[in-house]
Known about the structure:
By secondary structure, this protein is α+β, with helices and mostly antiparallel strands. Helix 7 crosses helix 8, helix 19 (763-806) crosses helix 23 and helix 21 (816-833) packs antiparallel against helix 23. It is extended, with a radius of gyration of 49 Å.
Amino acid sequence: MGSSNRKSFFFVSFLVYVFLLNTVKAAVLGIDYGAEFLKISIVAPGRTPITLVINEISKRKTTVAVSFINQDRWLGEEAMNYQARYPEKVTTRLRELLGKSAKSDLVLDYKEKYKLPFEIRENNQGNGRETVEVFIDVENGSSGKQNGDGDGDDDIENNYSSHTIEELVATTLQYAMKIGTALGKGAIKDAVVSVPPYFSQTQRRALYDAADIAGLNVMALVSDVSCAALQWGIDKDFAKNETRNVIFFDVGSSHSSASLVEFGALSERRSKKTYGSFVVKSVEWNDEFGGEDLDVLLVNHFLDEFQEKHGSETNGKDVTKDKRAVAKLRKQVRKTKEMLSANKEAPVSVEGMFEDIDFRSTIDRATFEAKAEKTFQRMLEPLRRLVTVELPKLGLTLEDVEAIEVIGGTVRVPALQRLIDEEVLKDSGKSIDKRLDADEAVAMGAGLFAANMSTTFRMRKFGAADALPYGIDYQVVGGVDEDEEKNNKIALFNRFDAYPSRSKVTIENVTANEYILKTFIAAVKSGDESEDNVKEELVLPPAWSSADVATFNVSGIDHFREKYNNTEDGNVTVTFAMDPSGIFFVEKAQFEVIVTDMVEIPRPKKSKKMDDKKSKKNITIEEVETTAKATDETAATVSEDEKEEKEEEKEAAAPAEETTKEEEKKEDEEEKETDATDSESGKKEQAEEGEKESAEEEEEKPAASEETKEGEEKEEEEEEGKEEEEEDDKEEVYIPQYRERKRKFKHDLLVSESDNPIVQMTNAEILASKGKLEKLHAKDQAKRETEAAKSNLEAYIYSSRSKVRQDEDIEKVTTEEQRESHLQSLEDAEDWLYTDEGENANKTTYETKHKGLKDVSDAFIFRAQESSVRPESVKYAKKWIADTRKTIGTWKDKKKHIFANETEPLLQDIADLESFLEEKEKEQEAKEAHEDAAFTSKEVKSELSKRMTKYKKVKSKPAPKVEKPKTNSTGNATGKNSTKKNSKKDKKKGEETTAADEESENTSTPTKEEEDKEGGGRGEEATSSEEGSAADPPMPDEPEPTKKKSWFGKVFDKKEPEEAASGDL
Length: 1065
């Protein structure tokens, strides 16, 4: 058996600028999923390369919380608003419950330590997963039901809700996608999620399950350390062979960790380009103490103080057991802790904390630091171990470290920073660095990872390799001797190995049908091996009770052994992999066998050299004979030109023959892999060398007479015949030669996985959870629409009441009785909203009441608008009628091409419009102001527009073209230039004449009576013209011909009364 490792760099990139592909336009998210807060960065096309997402209340971080109140679901800050009133219905700190058994002591201790008010039980759906499930009574104040089948629909109907931890985490991931989509202007499905460096296999797989339920494609799970390291080094250049060491100290809400990261340059093999890169060399952590412990410390301090001050007033009740009192106090102490970071003293105030008793107190920074001393020391343990233990192992000291970067919100506590400098970094000349944003560095780094993995963006490469938090060993069970089975524990991946990576395990000479490979967490070794004081300590992942990771069953070997006569020489190779997310799995398992057999060596190929020579000689002889007959049959010699041609042919043939020999020799060498060689090859080579020498001698001989050549040719033919006879004899006695051949065959085997600490969700379970969240989402959508309908109704009541009471125009067109009746209806609707019926009504009820009130108010508003708009529209229409008639009367002289049969129908239409207006005005005079109008301004506009269209069509009829008489150039013309000048002069004169005619035609002077009627402010409208606005009023959708807007535009460009009435006030 044996194993081999191979590691690789995970390339990330610096976002130089956003490059949008033609087919992909989706943004990507970087999610810092913390124990308490959610921070999200986004990289989206067409905006700042990377930025942090703000939530609906403009905060850069969101509390991880989900609440269920009155069968409604609330997320984030909206959920936290209910914590003081319904603490047992608000679920928080969900990440630390992922991938853990509900029965483990760690989960129970976690709930007790952090005073989680909601009920945690074991998932009892019969799948053996034993994961955490949260039970909530959505109606009453406590979880009253004790048993349930986990079906969310039935539970909600019975005022009882149960949700697995994966479903709750999926809900928060969907929330992250929602607020990211609002900023990215499109649906977002891809993200990189950060996790603590100590996250186990079960926690990582559970987070993937939650993402599948949420519909989020997790591109990778990246440790907080790697995200911060990328953010630190992305804008720096590293020279070749340069190394920089940086320590990252992270104090989050639930843990603290210290990591050593080595930065340097990395060269590509092909392009030889150099990029920056980093490798996480070592990681230390404490998953039991974080910033949340400081909150709990203050809560306990003030609970004790409350009990001392007001214990006699509580009738013997214990305030520490009251979930509501603890929730109220916890909300306030967070503000107190933040104030102590900037002030020496901070207050705390809780109204009605317990039994209607108000609580007020203060605490100074010295008291707080004294109480938190042990907590600070536990937080510093990872950093202290890294500096004192891990650095010496790597041959480093603090002097070799360039920076100590601190991240996480808790590092802002002054006492913690002071302890780092005084106890860990003392006498080293180093101090903590604060170049990164402690709260946002991880989220921004995750966004850079996501942008690199997306195909949407063009990037600058940066190598990254994370470190495995736990080493993994393997053991082969079955198919080996018992003694070997007990002692074959072999390292598969070592602690702090870089990943992604692969490791191969080879089991040689297999004889069994299946092999079982058990994997488990490797013990951490400490001490000096040379002094035999090595100690082993088993460091298990959170909530794990044993070191077992998984068991892999490799089977199906006999099926392939039978194909090769039950060989015992086969090997089984199992390839284990650690992907970029730190997920451990078997990539493939194969049965490998080497088959050995004997194969015949191919016979040497017969050389075609002699045939080629014969053909060439025959061709040469024919050419010589043909040339001799053509020139002189008695000639004994050939010409000099023919000699040169022959010599060139021979020179060209010689290297070709040599090339043929070399190729044949290579083929023989490739076919003969064994040492057995035939003696014929030597003879053949000698014969060929002899032929080559004879060919060279022939080339050196001068041209002889034809008789001499014929003699030489006969001798050569006799020699070639002898060689062919020898070769024929050799073929008859040829003995076949054989060589040994080895071939490797590979066949894929079956692999099954079992014995996981926490069983991963099946596809059916994921689909069921998806359906459950989809129903909750539909309820949320209906709830939002109902709230919007209620809000619209309430806003309309207030605005309509104010309008009816204060608008003078409405008062003119309504009676006192009408106004009072409507105001009473508004008041009744307002009172109804605050009743139980109005508080819990549905969307349709709100919209129906809104419409009923709106119809009455809109009628008032419409009559008020029409009282002023309608008379003005009539006045304008009458003016257009008068001006248009006058203009048409001038067409007899100025537009003779327009005939009477065209103007008479137009004048009749104008007369009909005038009659319509007069009739409607009489009807309106008979009505009261508070009654519905006889006609509307919209009707006037419609009738007027019809006539205007007809008028424009008739007026625009073109005049027939009149050809101008052609004039010949006179004798005074001086050529081409003179003719051109005269034509320009004539054209200009013609244009002036035409302009003058049009001006006189279009200009008409109004009478003094008309000027007095319109008033002195009439301006340009006082002059009516055929082309002007008076004679040709603009259509409603056409631009105004003059800068000054006509009255028609002022009236009809605004919203029609009916359209205005359709919107809310």
